[in-house]
Structure formats: C-alpha cells, structure tokens
Specification:
single chain; 323 residues; mainly alpha; DNA polymerase, domain 1; hpI Integrase, Chain A; 2 domains; four-stranded mixed β-sheet; Tyrosine recombinase XerC; DNA recombination; Integrase_SAM-like_N; DNA-binding; cell division
C-alpha cells in the first residue's frame, strides 16, 4: 500500500485556518484533507501554483473514468475550489483554476410512487375506512387530501379550516370546503389554488364533524383555526402524520415504506398517466422548475379543475361546483 502523500504547506495552512478560525468540524477537515491529497497525487511533481484549469479538467476526467460518482467528484471540486479561493489572492494568482469547473451531473432518481391499486388499498384499508374513531377520521381526511391534491407535508400542516384574519393572526393557507378547494402558500411564497376531490371532501366533512372535540379554548389562533389538530389541541406536527401513515401502510400490507411525499408523487404520477397535461399538474403541485410564473398566470383554473376531474382516480367532483 502506498504511503499517503505529503500535503504542500499552503494546503496545511488552509486546513489549519478552517479548523482554528472558521471552527469547521473535525470530520469536515478530515474530508477536505483527503480531497487535497487526491489532488496532489494527480498533480505529480506539480506545485499548487502551476495547476491550471486544463489540469483540473484532466484530473476530473481521470477520476470519472476510474468510477468516481458525480457527488464524490463535486465534493472534491468543492474542496479544491475552496483552497484556491483562499490561497490564490495571497500569492497574487490571477485565476482560481477550479472556479469554472463543474462535476458531471448526477442522474436524478425517479420519485417513488405507488400504483393506483396500492393507493386504493391504502386508503380503503379497513383500519382507516371502517372506523368512526375521531383520530382515524382525522387521519383519513389527511391521507385522502394528500392524494387528492398533491400537497407537500408542510403545506397540509399549515392549512386552516377557513380563511381567518385578526390583529395578531392571518391564515396563510386554508380550506374552502364548499368550493372543494384549498388555497396554499407554497415554496417561494407562491400561492396556488388546488381542487379537492369528492372522496377527500367526504373525508374532510367527517373529520370536521368531530374536530371541535380537539379544540382547546385557551389555544392561540394558530391552533384554534388549524384544520388538523393533535390530541392536545395543537396544530398537528408533521412527525405525527409520518408515523400514522407508516402504521397504516403496514396495516395495509404494502411492500414499501410509505411517507407523505409518496402520496404527492402518486398524485402527480396518476394524473399525468391519465391526462398527460404536464403544465396542469405542474400548477397543482406548485413546482417552479419546469415553467415560469408567467406561464402559471396564463393557465386558467377552470382548465385545471376540468383536467383534475377527468384524470384523478378519486376525483368525481360535483359538476355543479365547477360552474
């Protein structure tokens, strides 16, 4: 086994700076040291100031050919880039040779989604569908709404029973059950309106009929108006939803671990399979990466509702509510 190469003094000084001045964690310093040793091994007999961008690209190509994964290469480049950003100005080096070099893009893993049959098995499981116990009614409403509207976990938790505004509190997201809609303030403070299907509406109505049992008079407005409450009368915690969904999936005999985002992915996958209207689903999910805000404003909500009604496996919204 080859002995580890010695680091040039400037690299040791940088690691010492990170440890003593920047208070970086020991494991971070150790990782940076390994990455710098990798650079020194690649740049045989070259001084740090002689390494140019073309050399960095050659080293990157060699490592990639040896099987290093994009994330590993990106981490190495980050360490090398950080060293030169600190050291280059000290010695008057004109350019940081790593500045414009990027690692190969990692393949994006596909979102995990359940099949329609698996989703139906989850939501129609007797542990959820047959019980009239208040907490189970709450859980059914939560999971039906997840699958009905493709909400993020944080968005669902933030929902109020309706819009409320006072001197000390204003709803950011809320349900309009008569219109079968939820108004959501999502990522980037972008607001959107999403349809709620018939199955989810029925589940929500059942939950609202018992919700008052959980309201505590002394609670603040944030909790009193929360759509979903915990047993202590507080707005439900995301962890509670995650745990309850995992328990339900186990009871339903599903072969995979189910978390709230799986229901969001399943919503998107199943609607796209049926409608193949990417822009409509994009709008309902509140994504900003595929189309611009200008495109969102051109999408008519009635069009979104009609796409939803035609495509979603559990929609069946009343035609009278779409007028």
């Amino acid at each position: 086994m080859n002995a580890p190469v010695n680091l040039p003094e400037p690299m040791r000084q940088w690691l010492d700076y990170l440890a003593t001045q920047r208070r970086y964690a020991a494991h971070t310093i150790s990782a940076y040291e390994r990455d710098l040793r990798q650079l020194v091994e690649l740049a045989t007999d070259m001084a740090p100031q002689d390494i140019a961008e073309r050399h960095i690209r050659q080293f990157l190509g060699k490592l990639h050919g040896q099987g290093h994964q994009p994330r590993s290469l990106a981490r190495m480049l980050s360490a090398w880039r950080g060293f030169y950003a600190w050291w280059a100005p000290k010695i008057g080096l004109a350019l940081n040779p790593v500045q414009d070099v990027k690692a190969p893009k990692a393949n994006r893993s596909l979102p995990k989604a359940m099949s329609v049959d698996q989703t139906q098995a989850l939501l129609e499981n007797s542990a959820l569908a047959a019980s009239r116990e208040p907490l189970t009614l709450r859980d059914r409403a939560i999971f039906e709404l997840f699958y009905s509207s493709g909400l993020r976990l944080s968005e669902l938790v933030s929902l109020d029973i309706s819009y409320y505004k006072s001197s000390d509190y204003e709803s950011s997201s809320w349900l309009e059950i008569a219109q079968q809609e939820v108004h959501v303030l999502g990522k980037g403070n972008k607001r959107r309106t999403v349809p709620v299907g018939q199955q989810a509406t029925l589940a929500l109505e059942a939950w609202l009929s018992v919700r008052d049992q959980f309201v505590k008079p002394q609670s603040d407005s944030c909790d009193q108006f929360a759509l979903f409450l915990g047993e202590r009368g507080k707005r439900i915690h995301p962890r509670v939803i995650q745990q309850r969904l995992a328990q339900l999936a186990l009871a339903a005999g599903l072969p995979t671990r189910v978390h709230p985002h799986v229901l969001r992915h399943s919503f998107a996958s199943h609607v796209l399979q049926s409608a193949q209207d990417l822009r409509a689903v994009q709008e309902m999910l509140g994504h900003a990466s595929i189309s611009t805000t200008q495109v969102y404003t051109k999408l008519d909500f009635q069009h979104l509702a009609s796409v939803y009604d035609a495509a979603h496996p559990r929609a069946n919204r009343k035609s009278s509510d779409k007028s």
